[in-house]
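ok so for the tutorial part 2 we go from a plain amino acid sequence to predicted structure tokens. step 1 is just haveing the sequence, like this:
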Amino acid sequence: MYIKSRFEIFINILFYIGLGVALIIAIYPFFTIILMSLRPRVLSFTLPPVYIFKPTLSHFRDTFLWHSGLIRNLWNSIIISSSTTLIAVITGTLAAYAFSRINFKAKDFLFQWILTFRMLPAISVVLPFFIMFTKLGIYDTLLAVIVTHVIIDLPMAIWLMKSFIDELPEELDEAARIDGCSRMGAFWRICMPLSAPALVATAILCFLFSWNEYLFAVCLTSTKARPILIATQGLMSYQGMRWGQLAVLCIIIIIPAILVVLFFQRYLIRGLTFGAVKA
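step 2 — the prediction. this is what the tokens look like for a chain of 279 residues:
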């Protein structure tokens, strides 16, 4: 029977202490937001902070009463993020399969050129997008935001999916084609089922980027297509910042992202670390 030495026990204790400290640091901001949403306004910034108080739901009531377009903003975010994820994942997977399985001229150059779009600072391209969409008459529309998000998400989707498809043995495709499948048939019947973990991981990352993106949303929308993240701009009044309502909006913004990650957590870890089949 193996007995741990004192040194190993000491290392384990340090590990769990460090893990606990990191967990507290990660959770404390969200804990503070929840307290702020339930704490009366007069206690928002008292020193030392007050942790025991009579909770109030007035901030939740005032948020929905004061912000009449909140539901519309939330719906805009859902449409933008879902559409961006769907388009980027489908298009990116098809492009990744082509880069992985088909040999053509300038393949490496084209792949690297696509990846450079992800490296561009967003602030350097937002003005050209604004001018272009204004002339096309689609400024302040969901389409404008979705197009910009897809352009930014697509290189990441191609890169992640190509890395995964590269690990799938080409013999599987060849066997499917010998059995009568076309190249697209082999893609849908062989590659797609085996790439499910990578597809989920890529979809989660695309969704989170689109959900949390701020710069394009604030510059390319005015009133009709504004997502929920931009709703936080109007919380400054002559009385100061409405911190309680801001905390409520932060909770509304954070919860969908947390639920998506928690629900697909095992697929996310598997898709980012392993392939379904090792060559």
